[in-house]
Amino acid sequence: MTTTTTTDPPAPAAAPARRPGPRPGPGTRRAGRQLHGGPVAYAVLALFTVGSLFPLVWTAVAASRDSSRLARTPPPLWFGSNLPRNLGTAWTDANMGLALFNTVLVAGAIALGTVLFCTIAGFAFAKLRFRFKSVLLMLTIGTMMIPPQLGVVPLFMVVAELEWTDRLQSVVLPTLVSAFGVFFMRQYLVEALPTELIEAARVDGASSWRVVWHIVLPVARPAMAVLGMLSFVQAWNDFFWPIIALTQENPTVQVALTGLGRGYVPDQAVIMAGALLGTLPLLLAFTLFGRQIVGGIMQGAVKG
Amino acid sequence: MTTTATAARGTGAGDEGGTPRRPPGHDPGPGRAGRVRSRLYRWDVRYSPYAFVAPFFLFFAAFGLFPLLYTGWASLHRVELAAPDDMRWVGLRNYTRLLDDDFFWNALGNTFTIGVLSTVPQLLMALGLAHLLHYRLRAANFWRVALLTPYATSVAAATLVFVLLYGRDYGMVNWALGAVGIDAVDWQSGTWTSQFAVSSIVIWRWTGYNALIYLAAMQAVPDDRYESAALDGASRWQQFRHVTVPALRPTILFTIVVSTIGATQLFGEPLLFGGAGGQKGGASHQFQTLGLYLYEQGWFSFHLGRACAVAWTMFLILLLIAAVNATLARRLRKSH
Fold this sequence. Notes:
The complex is a heterodimer.
Chain A: H1 39-63, H2 67-70, H3 83-93, H4 96-127, H5 133-143, H6 152-161, H7 169-172, H8 179-192, H9 195-203, H10 208-237, H11 240-245, H12 253-261, H13 268-303
Helix pairs in contact in A: 1-13, 3-13, 4-8, 4-10, 4-12, 5-8, 8-10, 10-13, 12-13
Chain B: H1 2-8, H2 32-74, E1 77-78, E2 88-89, H3 93-100, H4 102-134, H5 140-152, H6 155-165, H7 172-179, H8 191-219, H9 223-231, H10 236-247, H11 249-264, H12 268-273, H13 290-299, H14 304-335
Antiparallel strand pairs in B: 1-2
Helix pairs in contact in B: 2-14, 3-14, 4-8, 4-11, 5-8, 6-8, 11-14, 13-14
Organism (chain A): Streptomyces netropsis (Streptoverticillium netropsis)
Membrane topology (chain A): Multi-pass membrane protein
Family (chain A): Belongs to the binding-protein-dependent transport system permease family.
């Protein structure tokens, strides 16, 4: 495992939500990182930004046209007037309404479960003493390497046996914890949670659960928020298992979009409207919390 | 901090009324109640950690480890989709069939080529972008968030747009190529063109994410290394080449491993790029990956046992990758 090798410099105990940008040093001129970007840097970044955003913008453009316009060259480059109609058709015919509702439920439950279970496990790994701790931690890190989709067949057999096909719990339960989350919370709490605080409460006779409730959770809150957002995004976009466990009768967004892509509704503009509906909530979240999400990914990277 | 105050209040010598909250471990008060409490306290200290990590490991055992092991067991059986309960022992027959199937080797090869096509440019561009993001920039956060936006787009939504953009007759890509005098390309039907198109979706979604990972690692490089390099008269490019890249080597290895695992599992992009018959990965299976092959075996040919054999083969490939990675990492550490 190479995961921990990047930690050698003592990282500042900054909350992940804090601005991760280059911090202006105390009056020292530093080479390298403090160099100002030249026009070329801006030009290249602008190019990649356009490349990153264009497919999304064009999704909206195509969703606002009618399908006969999409079957003509040159392709449309600006918005048309059919957006409401296409969104409406996608909402009803492609079942996007139900899909969005289901996905909010599923992703919310997964984010909640992940944050809760990973925080207490991360706390135990960060600050408590128990036998087999380092072995268990290594095991946790090791499990990050195993992609869950290798186990789909037995999972499917179990779900079929329980008659859980098309039930949301079949998608929620297998994704409810994450090894990354445990590790992420551990790395955060190692630095952010003063051991003396726990000891003081201990001396006071507080039980472990009281320590968690009154000390750990308040300290961990910023990292919990970031982990919650990352888990939510991941659960929202989860693909392979939901495709197998659910059908078009009771889909998540990704299942409904797959139905669209495989010819469920032949209208291209409606397909794009569906894709737009399925992406918009996350894009909105990115506009609001983009900085925190970026900070969380970078924090997870340096630490993990 | 208010919580600590409430928690610490009891340290005073015995509040009046009710429970004196003394440190039970140090001074277990006289009487049965005190002994019981101190024993509870010790149990709490000893066993609570296990309770805290238990949910994670229980869920992992139930939904991660068990399915993985059971996949291996089921791969030695004949299991039909219609009756998953009915397992008949066939030994290694699923595997020998796999090795005899040209489509398996085709899928293995496609997984490899698409993996290379998507991973190499992606990580190289991410490294370059991270270098640019590491400069002092106006609106630094805007660039980061913008470059990360594709990561927020699901595989399904992204692929549906790219299918349109790569359309043979009315797609934007062919239109742009036409504008510079290149004939329209039938992206889906060619082997290399379809694999290029599928790879481009992967590249689009993950480049910004990897750039942020590299950026985080760059920010952890001590400044004095750059200072001394600058004093030696190193240009920006030389600094990048001789300071940044060596310092990032572990991170680069890490991203290679993660991307390789992702590439081995590639599924959604080729599935939806293929449209209605996507599990085949194109009319002549030209972009069928191992993930799609597994899906086709299990849910379109109804042979769950064979699908398990595919999954277990993929697992073995991952173990191989992990072993190679461990060797590389060890050599890397030695060379330092």
